[in-house]
Amino acid sequence: MASSMTAGPGGAVVVGDRYEIEPERPLPELDYGSSKAFAATELRDAKRGLYAVLPDPALPLRLDAINSIRRIDNNNLTRFLGWDVVEWPIDNRRRPALIFERPHGPRLFPTPDTRIEPFREEALVRRVLQPLCQVLEELAFLNLPHRNIRAENLYYDGTDPVRSPIMLGECVSSPPGYLQPVVYETIECGMAHPAGRGTGNASSDFYALGVTLAFLIAGRNPLAGMTNEQVVDIKLAKGSYATFVNGQRVPAGLVEVFRGLLNDDANERWGLVQLQGWLGGRRTSPKQQVVPNKASRPLEIAGQPYMSARAVSEAMSRHWDEGLGLLQSGELDQWLRRGLADEDRIEAVNTAKAAGHEEGEIDDATLARVCVALDPLGLIRLRSFRAMIDGIGGLLAVGLREEPLRNAFAVVAKTAIVSFSLEMMSRPRPDIFRAVSTFERVSPTVNREEIGFGIERALYALNPNAPCRSPMFESDYVAGLEHLVPALDRLARTKGTAFDSLIDRHIAAFVGARLKANIVPELRELRDAKDHVGYALPAARILAAVQHQTASGPAPALCGAVATMLEPSLARFHNRNTRDLIRARMQEVAQSGRLADLIAIADDPEALELDRRAFRVAAKDYANTVKQLERLEYERENRAAISRGISSQVASLLSGVAATIAVLVIILVKLI
Amino acid sequence: MADATENTPRPSKKRRGGSILIWLLAAGILFAFYESIVLLLIGMFPTGLAFLVDRSPQKDQARSVGYLNFAGCLPWAINYWMSGGGFGRVFEIVGDPLVLGIMYSAAAAGWGLCFLVRPFVTSYLIVASGMKDAQLKKRQSELAEEWGEAVRQGADGEDGRGDD
User: Across the interface, do A652 and B121 touch by the CB < 8 Å criterion?
Assistant: First the structure.
């Protein structure tokens, strides 16, 4: 969608010449988290109820999901109509805006503490389970997990709370799982930072569906009042099914559904097939959840007793320094041998400790591996860094400005914790292999300090959806590579002559991660640049490659700024006339807005070579004049002697001529 | 190092032969025309002097004297040849002070030419040098204007940077 720049009448923001957002009409009932909702209309059909979501620009949108989800036409899923980056008048910056069809009714749960009339079994199946199963089927067809299923994201599609259909809200304006309260997440994802939960898969959606059903059956949040840590602890202690179902009045007919959906073992959890089978009348007994091994005696951490390996892992990660102490003192080993007596865990912990770089050295990386060994379900924990394997990039994207998170990420990248985690997993998902492979390809770049690499490169390589975080775009939003050149063009237009920087570390890393063409030679030139010319040319070449690949249209202001930056490079041409000619051509071409054309003129190797050759000729010519002047000086100093010599020659010549004439005359006279 | 003598081409037999022939011819002429030669020797005495005095390799001054000296001797030489010859005639001719005066004056005219021409040549050299100097300096300015100060450093000293 082309960038929206026009403002409609009355200050409305136009999106893609099709929709209009009204900044003066916020819709707080549709807000969620940091995303704000505003009234919107379709220009061709003002009666159609729409709304716009303006998410936090620092959070990546699910750009990879946006094009897919547009194809879904299901009345039980909030219809996504389009998005664009808009000039937002409230905070005077550019930010993404997504347009959805507005539900005809309110949320079922406006807040997590809301209480509603509990759903009966029949209504739950007919109004919630069946429609949502259809939605999940369509999402499964697109291989797209929703990751935003929760009671607070369900809407009445009408004004009657008893009869109106129920629809599921949107899922593309925030990273997957980011806005989900911990209660809706699996145990391992609940332990992760919200940004580090990863894309996950449909299994995460089915778990969230199970929790949502539990909310609806109870008419409230069954775990209201608990902190996130308490929610995780109770799930670890009792299991998710027991947490949500025990003590609730769950209809007997739905027990099977809850047991299937709330299974903590992802491989045993119900998926689409099982749910559709149940809805179709097939009844089976879902496997009883395997209860994790409980130790014969607890391990005390921070004054609390913990009985299972998973719980101990989580507790040690929350109380990191104490965890290091337990590891160093051997208390953990003792508990594992005498309390838990789980040979697999003991061996895994020993492997984790042995993978350290020095015998007996216990450091953060060691404890991180031990936590994985105790809880091998793909969660990486290192101090405040807590992410699923496929969520590492997401956490880096959100926590990039926090030094402890950056440092922890660098440790994770340097010490093979991720591959260790994969080894520990018994049945990893196929997408986890891809995530590990991507991470291992990217992690060596973290230690490279040069421009285009480093932690910035890791950020963009691990997050295909991350917008460019360059400080140059503080008031802009560069979602993808196709937005980069237009954003720089706007910046050049705004800053005018003060615009003197084309590429910084973030932009270089963003381009390096996204562009198909190889820009390593240009990055090396940027690294080695000693002056402005050495910087401007490779930077311009990189942007020209971006403009070419993305076909993002002409950028005359940017070209004009680049032409000014490349002005010093004209000093490479010796000939003044050539410089003037090239300068004039650059100014002319800059107006066309094509960077490649501009560079072709400023950095024409043939023209440079011709100029060099002509300069050599001119220099020789000059050297020749110097020699001649020296010769003249010599002649001046020896003029007397030279004059004598020449005079003698001239006299000799004149004498010869006169003598000849005289001889002829004499002979003639004598003959006559 | 090769022996220098090995590289020096030895005069060919033909050249040595030619040289001997010339000497023989000269001896023959001397023997046949020794009276005329005495006349010319006396008449062209200034020319001989000029050859001794002139240190230049080309002997231009001596030539200047010699050409006019010869022109001065020629009428009396022709007279002598037309009168039948003889040493008596030779001494008669060279004994006449006027004849010797004319012969020697012609030689003096040749010598005088060398000195007369010199100021003109010097003036020409000054003017030509001045014009050339101005022309060269103008060319240098043009080159520096078009190519920058780096052109003064020369083609070997150029560092790829032009000046404006």
Answer: no
Contact (CB<8Å) A643/B60: no
A635 has a chain B CB within 8 A of its CB: yes
Rounded CA gap, A60 and A397, in Å? 8
Quick check: A654 contacting B, CB < 8 Å?
A: yes
Structure tokens at A326: 């337990």
Pairing of strands A299-301, A304-306: antiparallel
Q: Do B150 and A574 touch (CB under 8 A)?
A: yes
Please judge whether B164 and A622 are an interchain contact, meaning their C-beta atoms are less than 8 angstroms apart: no
Task: Let me know whether A141 and A34 are in one domain.
Answer: no
Q: How far is B29 from chain A (nearest CA, A)?
A: 22
Percent of chain B clearing pLDDT 70 (strictly above):
84
Question: Cβ contacts of residue B87 below 8 Å, gap of 6+?
Answer: B35, B38
Q: Is A166 helix (H, G, I), strand (E, B) or coil?
A: strand
In this structure, what CATH number is given to the domain that contains residue A242? 1.10.510.10
CB contact (8 A) between residue B121 and residue A647: yes
* CATH of residue A31: 3.30.200.20
Q: Do the chains contact at B146 and A576, CB–CB below 8 Å?
A: yes
**Residue keyed to tokens 């299901």:** A74
Q: Are residues A526 and A654 in the same domain?
A: no
pLDDT mean over A649-667: 92
A271 and A139 within one domain? yes
Is A108 within the bounds of a domain? no
- For A199-209, the pLDDT digits (tens) are 989 999 999 99
* pLDDT (0 to 100) of residue B159: 44
Other C-beta atoms lying within 10 Å of the C-beta of residue A310: 26
| Domains: count for chain A | 6
Euclidean distance between CA atoms A54 and A61, whole angstroms = 11
pTM: 0.79
Please report residues of B whose CB lies closer than 8 A to that of A645.
56, 60
The answer to whether position A269 is within a domain reads yes
DSSP 8-class letter at A107: B
Q: Do A662 and B74 touch (CB under 8 A)?
A: yes
State whether A618 and A533 are in the same domain: no
Residue A193 lies in a domain: yes
**In the predicted structure, residue A97 carries a pLDDT above the cut 50:** yes
pLDDT band at B13 (very low <50, low <70, confident <90, very high): low
Give yes or no: residues A312 and A258 share one domain. no
Spatial contact of A124 and A162, defined as CB atoms under 8 Å apart: no
Determine, yes or no, domain membership for A136. yes
Rounded to a whole number, what is the distance in Å from the CA of A653 to chain B's nearest CA?
A: 7
A224 touches chain B (CB under 8 A): no
Same domain, A53 and A197: no
CA distance B60 to chain A (A): 5
Chain B contact present for A571, CB below 8 A: yes
Boundary residue ending a domain (A462, A483, A510): A462
Residues in a beta bridge with A54: A36
pLDDT tops 50 at residue B2: no
Smallest CA–CA distance from B136 into chain A, residue? A625
Structure tokens at A208: 């969230």
- What is residue A229's predicted lDDT score, i.e. its pLDDT? 94
Look at residue A658 and tell me whether its pLDDT is greater than 50. yes
User: Is B143–A618 a contact, with Cβ atoms under 8 angstroms apart?
Assistant: yes
> Do A557 and A646 fall into the same domain?
no
Closest-CA residue to A494 (of A546, A563, A551, A560): A560
List phi, psi (to 5°) of A554.
-70, 150
The CA distance from A628 to the nearest CA of chain B, in Å, is 8
User: Does residue A128 sit in the same domain as residue A274?
Assistant: yes
- State yes or no: pLDDT of A420 exceeds 80: yes
Please list, in sequence order, all residues whose beta carbon lies within 8 angstroms of the beta carbon of residue A361, skipping any fewer than 6 positions away: none
Interface size between A and B, measured as CB pairs under 8 A: 157
* Residue A648 touches chain B, beta carbons under 8 Å: yes
Q: Residue A192's domain spans which residues?
A: 121-279
